[in-house]
Write a structure and sequence with these properties.
The complex is a heterodimer of chains A (270) and B (136).
Chain A: H1 11-23, E1 27-31, E2 34-39, E3 42-47, H2 54-60, H3 66-75, H4 80-89, H5 95-113, E4 122-125, E5 137-138, H6 139-156, H7 161-164, H8 180-188, H9 195-202, H10 206-218, H11 227-230, H12 256-269
Antiparallel strand pairs in A: 1-2, 1-4, 2-3, 3-5
Helix pairs in contact in A: 3-4, 6-10, 9-10
Chain B: H1 4-12, E1 17-24, E2 29-35, H2 42-57, H3 60-63, E3 76-80, E4 84-90, E5 99-106, H4 112-126, H5 130-135
Antiparallel strand pairs in B: 1-2, 1-5, 3-4, 4-5
Helix pairs in contact in B: 1-4
Classes of the chains: A alpha+beta (270), B alpha+beta (136).
């Protein structure tokens, strides 16, 4: 890996994690978004409610069925790391494929655990993960990748509004063939499921779904986020712009959706 | 049944290999890398490779079914420059085909045909369970 890029976007969380890494600390870093486990200052495991767990990734990756995974999990007393290892031993899962899934799961969860706006971090020394991902990744690599992912999201569509709202597909035009990977996502985008729920249902990393929902919004295949999707604008309710409500001072009421997009874009630039 | 490390070691043993990476092309995440320093940096290279891979892999021009048959899948992409070949090989099945192996090959000393076959085999082995490999 290249040396860690500058991480200006995550000042407090980054400095705490880097300090712990320097000290060679062992324990768990707790934030509202998730948990990051350290051993000797290196990240060995990450968990987040928003991320897709290892078992879903292994099944979503293709070769295994849900039933095979459930059976392996039962035999290992619910420990997903050991269940995956057992499936490798049984010759039903490739070592390499599992390794890819474990890395993907760790960085997926770390991305949400270190997300901005997750409140203060707390570190508890000496806490080890139960059934971890059996990895050991330098903390600065995790921070650099998390920062890169935040930048990627912001470059596609600024603001976090899209990350948690239910995704609603639009009917694509006949001139727009949709690739099968995106088709599978669109088929489930029923206006009820959030990106995290879509990710679990598909067995894909939650971060991938955040990226793909943004790309689909840009392509006009899902409803863009914000109040626009929920509150019909004047045009959609059939009223002419002239009939829009006016305050007593004579000014037209502002376009809230537009202002929120501008705010989101400005926040992303800061 | 090699893991990520071994796959990169094997890729770097290809004659003329200068660098190798394993990249998640949905988001440009470098899972691991080996070899020389990439001229544009490993992350920037991965980001561009991921864009290219996505464009090709999701393109109707390359993937649409022919004569009503099954849709086909792109297996690899080769980029040729004045000094190098870039072999971009998709790993079948791993994370729904969302992972690629990128080999940066010296144009003078590398053998494109051999390197391509070797990379294809490595990509297949990476996602192939032990039993399935043994049964072949």
């Amino acid at each position: 890996m290249s040396p860690a890029a500058a991480i200006p976007e995550l000042p407090t969380r980054a400095s705490m994690l880097l300090r712990l890494a320097e000290e060679g600390a062992g324990g768990v870093l707790e934030r509202a978004g998730g948990l990051l486990y350290l051993v000797d200052g290196r990240v060995v495991h990450a968990e987040s409610e928003a991320a897709t767990p290892l078992g879903r990734l292994v099944v979503g990756a293709g070769r295994l069925t849900e039933a095979q995974w459930a059976e392996a999990l039962e035999r290992c007393g619910g420990d997903s790391g050991r269940a995956a290892a057992l499936l490798v031993k049984d010759g039903r899962l490739a070592d390499g494929a599992l390794e890819l899934c474990r890395h993907t799961a760790l960085f997926d969860a770390a991305c949400f655990a270190l997300a901005p706006g997750g409140g203060a971090a707390r570190f508890r020394h000496g806490v080890a993960p139960e059934g971890g991902l059996a990895l050991s990744v330098p903390a600065d690599r995790v921070l650099a990748e998390t920062a890169r992912r935040r930048r990627l999201l912001a470059s596609l569509w600024p603001g976090a509004a899209m990350d948690t709202q239910p995704v609603l597909r639009r009917t694509p035009g006949p001139d727009r063939p949709v690739p099968s990977r995106l088709r599978a996502l669109l088929d489930l985008a029923d206006g009820v499921r959030t990106p995290a729920e879509l990710a679990r249902a598909l067995g894909r990393p939650a971060f991938h779904v955040l990226v793909e929902v943004r790309r689909l919004a840009i392509a006009g295949l899902v409803e863009p986020p914000g109040p626009r999707a929920r509150q019909p604008t004047a045009a959609r309710t059939g009223r002419s712009p002239a009939a829009r409500s006016r305050a007593p001072d004579g000014f037209e009421s502002p376009d809230i959706a537009l202002l929120q997009r501008v705010r989101d874009a400005l926040e992303a630039c800061l | 049944m090699p893991g990520i490390d071994m796959t990169l070691v094997e890729a770097m043993s290809v004659h003329g290999a200068r660098g190798a990476t394993i990249v998640d092309w949905t988001c440009g995440f470098v899972l691991d890398s080996a070899g020389e320093a990439w001229p544009a940096g490993v992350d920037a290279t991965a980001a561009d490779t991921a864009e290219l891979a996505r464009l090709v892999r999701e393109s109707a021009a390359f993937c649409a079914a022919h004569d009503g048959g099954e849709p086909t899948t792109v297996e690899d992409v080769i980029v040729t420059t004045g000094s190098a070949y870039h072999l971009i090989c998709f790993v079948p099945e791993a994370l729904e085909g969302g992972v690629l192996l990128h080999l940066w090959l010296d144009r003078e000393s590398g053998n494109l045909a051999l390197a391509r076959r070797r990379l294809r085999a490595l990509a297949e082995e990476l996602a192939q369970p032990y039993a399935a490999t043994g049964a072949r």
